[in-house]
Amino acid sequence: MSNYTVQPAAGVRGAISVPGDKSISHRSIMFGSLAKGTTIVRGFLRGEDTISTLKAFRAMGVNACDDGEVIRIQGAGLHGLKEPVDVLDCGNSGTSMRLLTGMLAGQDFFSVLSGDQYLRNRPMGRVIEPLAGMGATIFGRAGGTRAPLAIQGRTLKGISFSSPVASAQVKSALLLAGLYADGETRVTEPSLSRDHSERMLRYFGADIEPLSNGARIRGGRILEGREVHVPGDISSAAFFIVAALLVPDSELLITGVGMNPTRTGIIDILLRMGASIEQLNFSETSGEPVADLLVRSSSLHGIEIGGELVPRAIDEFPIICVAAACAEGKTVLRDARELRVKETDRIAAMAANLSKAGVSVVETEDGMEITGGDRLLGCTADSFGDHRIAMSMIMAGLVAKGETTVTDVGCISTSFPSFIELLERVCVR
Q: Is 402 exposed, middle or buried (0-12, 13-18, 19+ CB in 10 A)?
């Protein structure tokens, strides 16, 4: 499917569950492969990005069987991976490439990481530079800042690194390298990014301690296989949350959503905008909090968004922009420069698309100002090859006047293959 056309909806109603969390799915494969014994993963997201991670570990000799229900991994242990005979293809997945770079830096073999045209253009220096400080030998294009990356594994030493950006990928890459390093590796960041790596490493038995603004890990501790239940991805749920808030006469129950506090910025932002979102049936699974979300149509108002909220909602800003476009008044986003180096420049992409839909948008260096209140106009929107841009503009089409066509929507399969199916199930026409 290249393009998708959406008509305005009369309501968003019913009960759904969204696919497993992408970040946790990636890590379940990685840590299960590095553990001793068997790891069983339930609720794994079978999207293109996570499959790239699975294929990479299979290429390094890991026995990982997928029966469609669970993935059963026979862990190779920290030092049991085999040198891949070919380039490891990360597809479009920045998580795969950056975290694998950290892990591969400590192996006793040579490896090469590459990906699609979009991934090869994303910045890798932010990972490579601190890994070099640990003793890693990594070569790449553009002065060592772009993939493909050639990695000659070697013995690493622990470091203390203060990251200039709040990035779970940078932090996780260094923690993975820290599993192999002599001594302690300490990573701090301006504000705490998502902590799935810390939680899962602790669950698997790593010598790791959370810090108020990061984490520290000591190498050498053997990981033990575990059973991992992957909760629903709040980043995927976000599209349906916003749709149910914006489309009149809507009531939607989304079950089993991961509610990790480092990921719930989207909920806090929408509640501040006036959203009706109830959190029900709290529980915990595999070290991660989970809840059901009941969402009802709401009248939203503009707010200012910045500071510590930004890393807690970094993947959800494209759909937050849609909410802001339909809210009364002005929404100001700042401190979000990181959005410019995602799958695409998400600030520029959303500004361009919302402008096509008749919204007043002013780009800033680290965010944007969106003046909402008027009904969106149907338009032809560009996905820019970015799954979150594509899904956000499809949801915008549910409340626009006239039809909206989003181009190049095949990218949605990287994170949410069942998105269109779920959308058509809950939309009332």
A: exposed
